[in-house]
Every structure is written in C-alpha cells, then in structure tokens.
Amino acid sequence: xKRVDLVYETLREWERSGxxxxxxxxxxxxxxxxxxxxxxxxxxxxxxxxxxxxxGRPVRFALACGSTAETRLDRIAKQQPSLAAAVEQxxxxxxxxxxxxxxxxxxxxxxxxxxxxxxxxxxxVAVGRFPRSAPFVTFNCADYANNPQLLLGQLFGIRKGxxxxxxxxxxxxxxxxxxxxFLDEVHRLPAxxxxxxxxxxxxxxxxRLGETDVERTANVLLICATTExxxxxxxxxxxxxxxxxxxxPPLEKRTLxxxxxxxxxxxxxxxxxxxxxxxxxxxxxxxxxxxxCPNNVGQLKADIQLVCAKAYADYVTGKKQAVSVHRAxxxxxx
Length: 334
Fold this sequence. Notes:
Elements: H1 3-16, E1 22-23, H2 24-31, H3 35-47, E2 51-54, E3 60-63, H4 72-79, H5 84-95, E4 103-106, H6 113-126, E5 136-140, H7 148-156, H8 172-175, E6 179-184, H9 191-203, E7 205-206, E8 216-217, E9 220-226, H10 230-233, H11 236-240, E10 244-247, H12 256-274, E11 279-280, H13 282-290, H14 296-316, E12 324-325
Helix pairs in contact: 1-3, 2-3, 4-5, 5-6, 12-14
C-alpha cells in the first residue's frame, strides 16, 4: 500500500472510531512516519477533494463530507462523459489555493450552466472549501441590463443618497461573502461593471455605488456564465482575470447513451415527484432520443415534465388506468 493510501485509510478508521479532525503530527506519530511526508500526503488528498482542511495552529484534516460516497459532480462525470473535462476544470478551480479561481461557464441556452454552478458550490462544501452555511447567491445580469446604475447597485450595494431616493442597501457581493456568487448572462454587465468586478477579483475590495472614501472586502468565489462568445462580448481585461473557461457542450454534441441517461433520469425524477410509477412506451423513449432540441437539456427536461403532467391529469380524471406516456401523447415538437 502506498503511503498516501495508508494515510487516507487511517483517517477513515479514525472517523469510524469518532475522532474526526487530526493534525499531520498526530497522524505521523501513530503511523511512525515523518511529519513532513504525512503533511505532504494530507495536502495531496485535500487537493484531490478527499479530505478537508481546517486552518489554524496546527492545521487539522478530516475526511471530506462526500469522501465515502461520490458527489453529484462525480456522478455526472461518469454518466455524462462529455462533461468529464468540464467537471475536472471546475474541481481544479474550486480547489486552487488560497481561495479558488474565478470561472466562466460558456454554453448555449439550456446546457445546464446554472445547475453546474450549483454543483460546484455543493462540491466546495463537500470537500471543506466552504462551510455548510456558505451562501450560493445567483444574479442574472440581463434582469437589469437596461438600467446599468440599478444593476451595479444590486451587485455592489448602494450608499444612502447615491442618487435621488437611494437608501442604504447591501449588494450581492456582500451577501455572497464566504461563498459563491453566480453571475448568469455576464455579457449583459456593462463595461463599468466589468471594470469594477475585475478590481474586486484583483484585490478583493469593492465600493458600494456612491462610495468614494470606503473600501469593503469580501471573500467570494466568482462563477460567471454566458451564452455568447467571450472574445467579442466581454472586455479583454475582464477575460484575463477569469483564467478558467469551462465549455458545456450542447445536447446535439452529446452521445446517444448520454441522452438516454438524461431521458431516463428525468422520467424517474417525475415519478418521484408524482409518487407514481410512470409507464413509458418504447416509441415515446425513441422520440425523446432523436427529436431536435434547440434549447438543449433544459428543453428536454421541460418537455418530459409536460408529458408527465398530462399523463398524470389523464390518470386522475379517469381517462387512463395508469400514469402512462405513449407516442401519441407527445407534443408536436417531439
């Protein structure tokens, strides 16, 4: 057994016996190994997401909250091989010391950018990068695209009197302190907002709208997403500050096996929601596997939810004896 595996297995045994957090020195003493080597192994396990680290003197380690079972991110990488590279990139960005790397998720509408960001937050908590209470704050920049001043106020906060009728208001960066801020459709952020953001990325400081003499600090992992080409829709200076670009492929670029897994997964989710078994004909499954789906995974899920809702209504009203989906029940686009 390799030394690093011995260190990991000893941590597992200690957790089973009720001792969770342990220092490199304690572990080295028990194993009769050099403390520096044990420390090196523990940090390797931490980078791989298998253990979590508790800062202090001494630094202590414990099994990651998901280490005895796969995280959802791990399962996605296995079930959707086309996403494996994206998963590895996301993990690397989350684990990169000292605070992780800002990320830009690029993909068409419906490819799962928001869900991917949530899974990265879940992974960060599972490996001890963030505490369980760490916030996950979402903001769609398109919601305020026609009012740049209000958009910046939402993001950075507002100082009372910054403009007529303005009241003191916390921004999303402040609300996301100690966790993740997910900015969807970041290409709709005006140039001024991008500049303010890269100041925050560089130095970890920001100002509320209307503040000139106060600098605030926050520890936030920034995850951005866009449906557009970053090269033509984001400032070059902003792009440079987000080194990790993660591409999520459209549904048409995924394998038939992956799409089949998604179809089965979505039907299973609806069965759980309804508390009923759903019978789906082979022809209906075949239709979901091959129809054109321009809005990608999001549309596939919505279309399946729609036919399940209709099937359930037919069952409740007595039109059908069971919750069943056949080719004739599918909407025209399918």
